[in-house]
Design a protein that fits this description.
2 copies of one chain form a homodimer. With about 120 residues, chain A is of the alpha/beta class. The first copy, chain A, has a single domain, classed as Rossmann fold (3-Layer(aba) Sandwich), CATH 3.40.50.1400. Helix content of chain A is about 45%, strand content about 20%. The first copy, chain A, contains 4 helices and 4 strands; from the N terminus they run E-H-E-H-E-H-E-H. Chain A has helices at about 15-30, 50-60, 75-90, 110-120, and strands spanning about 1-10, 35-40, 65-70, 95-100. A 4-stranded parallel beta sheet of chain A has the order 2-1-3-4, with helices on both faces. In chain A, helix 1 (about 15-30) links the parallel strand 1 and strand 2. The longest helix of chain A is centred in the first third of the chain and has 17 residues, at about 15-30. Chain A is globular, with a radius of gyration of 15 Å. The termini of chain A are far apart. In chain A, about 35% of the residues are buried. The interface between A and B is large, with 42 and 42 residues.
Chain lengths: ~120, ~120
């Protein structure tokens, strides 16, 4: 069973965390039937943590976990913190297949999104 | 004369700032001929500052400045810090027309970008 997990930084400002949850709702609607679960987790400052959400996915029957890092740059969070959290859980669930997709900022489509905002103005 | 300014947070990690500069180069290529200048500025931790880059734009003849905030959430940076920096410069250049576009995270297209990364995997 496939699950999709969006990982965001997390904020002290609850409205920012809500933005991530709403984006996750949109992802769930638009991802189609391939994923039985579409959820989000936060690196820090908000719940659920990455580890807790991976536990939850596995408890729900997830065998393949696709992770989307919702970050704009390939800093320490993307290159170290997220892989370390995943590695800890991979040790608990050696049969879980985990695919970490490129972080958002790596998408060549962002230029088009920015230009679209401009043309809508 | 129209200028386009991408404002990013800025990072201690120079590679992250370089990602923003490369994105700005792509914006310049794809924005077409409407903008005589396409540049970037950083809220903190990297150069140029927002104020310095607005000065530079005006010195180059800019009369209409379109600002794209390269941020994922509408936190303090987007809602307070960037508007305050702009307001300080607007006081210096009362004739400059400034249009602040929605921050990146507000774009409904981000869901599609995330799904695209998934389908490319």
């Amino acid at each position: 069973m496939k699950s999709l997990l969006l990982i965001a930084h997390g904020s002290r400002r609850e409205l920012s965390n809500q933005e991530v949850r709403q984006l996750t709702d949109q992802l769930r609607i638009q991802a189609g039937t391939e994923f039985k679960q579409v959820s989000c987790a936060f690196l820090e400052l908000a719940e659920p943590s990455i580890e807790a959400e991976i536990d939850h996915c596995v408890q729900q029957g997830c065998s393949e976990l696709f992770i989307l890092p919702y970050f704009l740059s390939a800093g320490r969070h993307v290159s170290e913190d997220i892989p370390q959290a995943i590695a800890r859980k991979q040790a608990d669930y050696p049969d879980l297949r985990v695919v970490v997709l490129p972080y958002l900022g790596a998408s060549p489509q962002l230029v088009q999104v920015l230009l679209h905002q401009l043309n809508d103005s």
